[in-house]
Amino acid sequence: QLQLQESGPGLVKPSETLSLTCTVSGGSISSSSYYWGWIRQPPGKGLEWIGSIYYSGSTYYNPSLKSRVTISVDTSKNQFSLKLSSVTAADTAVYYCARLDYEEVALDYWGQGTLVTVSS
Amino acid sequence: DIQMTQSPSSLSASVGDRVTITCQASQDISNYLNWYQQKPGKAPKLLIYDASNLETGVPSRFSGSGSGTDFTFTISSLQPEDIATYYCQQYDNLPPSTITFGQGTRLEIK
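^ Those are the sequences you sent over. The predicted structure of the assembly is below.
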């Protein structure tokens, strides 16, 4: 059974860079059938797509975050990562990693999510 | 950018009721529309993909329809375990370079 697990600091200071890693187990991140994505959800609010990456390294980003976001992949570790720079309190959210099935074009497996709080 | 308008934002219904949620796109998105269920404190769960296809293992009381700009999500007979927030989500093309979620519909038991 495929599993995704987010990891990283739960507290980040304003103006610093948020860094998270998603570890994929039970399947290969190098499969040609999937993209891998990051989605976030501020407390009490809706879902926001951050971006997606293919195992080859091709990326797509939310235009509203593009200037601050970098998503990368490490196929040797079966992981992909998120970096969000110059964070503010507005970036406080639960961050989810997920698999984007290329055939269904839907997010069919999700991590449990990790809360990242931006505060000094 | 394609905007998604989901309604209602909240809904109260009784067990056994038929429940309908709509999602409208600002431009034609063909059938590039998925529906998710999110229970409190949990990650979203995919229910419907490509507007009307039921994800494996999802109960048949859930269904979706529509194409172009107008989409509908239906629960044919509401069950207590269906209490959750539901989101529509669109993508623009293949591969999806932009993904947008609707604002969500919070479903409660009356």
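Chain B is about 0% helix and 50% strand. The mean pLDDT of chain B is 95.

Shout if you want it in another format.
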